[in-house]
Amino acid sequence: MAEHRSMQRAALLDAARSLLSEGGTEALTFPALAERTGLARSSVYEYFRSRAAVVEELCEVDFPVWAAEVSSAMERAQAPEGKVEAYVRQQLALVGDRRHRAVVAISASELDAGAREKIRAAHGGLVAMIVEALAEMGHAQPRMAAMLLQGVVDAAVRRIELGAAEEPSVITEAAVSMALRGVQADVGRVQG
Fold first, then answer.
1. Residue 35 above 90 pLDDT?
2. DSSP for residue 143
3. Are 148 and 183 in contact (CB under 8 A)?
4. Distance (Å, whole) CA 188 – CA 175
5. pLDDT (tens digit per residue) in 105-140
6. How many CB atoms lie within 10 A of CB 186?
7. Contact, 70 vs 125, CB < 8 A?
8. Residue 191 has what pLDDT?
9. By three-state DSSP, how is residue 141 classified?
10. Contact status, residue 59 vs residue 106, Cβ threshold 8 Å
11. How many angstroms separate the CA atoms of 135 and 80, rounded?
12. Is the pLDDT of residue 103 over 80?
């Protein structure tokens, strides 16, 4: 019985990812989840009390996987500058991934305070990954620099997600260049 419930919950989360990536948060409804999974709508409520609960669980399940991929890319880099580049590149490489599209759709939605806090905490964990590399580069305020660096990544993600006129690879190269020049210029001012 527990295995069946676990499989149903996983099917509901997979359906939620698809709905979010196809139609944004407006598409994530309990009737749509029921239709995608073949469950009765009342059965969906046995697994999740609200749409926000679905969103919270998606963040709990998907964000760590996404963050692990970014962390793994950073670990392969030797120098702090390489870690910064890997941080930017890997996040932008994940834009086409359904898990990422779901997280982006979730971030853009109107959610209750609990769901918003889980998303904020997950993003905080992602930003924390780059703080050490920025400190190694000599930043006096590596946490602030990490937040600004994530802002560059977020802007590039939005540009790619919107289907900008530029190819995703062009946006990625521009974001990497801007990030590296920005963090290096900031080190120069802090040390100079």
1. yes
2. H
3. no
4. 20
5. 565 555 667 666 777 777 777 888 899 999 998 888
6. 21
7. no
8. 47
9. coil
10. yes
11. 9
12. no
Amino acid type, 181: R
> How many Å separate Cα 25 from the centre of its chain?
15
Counting every residue written for the chain, the total comes to 192
Return the ∠ at Cα 125 (arms to 121 and 130), rounded to 5°: 145
Q: What is the pLDDT of residues 49-84, one digit of tens each?
A: 988 788 888 878 888 888 899 999 999 999 999 999
Structure tokens at 152: 């560059």
Quick one: tokens of 35? 């239709």
Q: How far apart are CA 39 and CA 18, in angstroms?
A: 16
The structure tokens listed for 19 are 């709905």
With residue 67 as reference, give the H or E element that holds it: helix 51-76
- For CA atoms 77, 156, 169, 177, the dihedral sign is negative
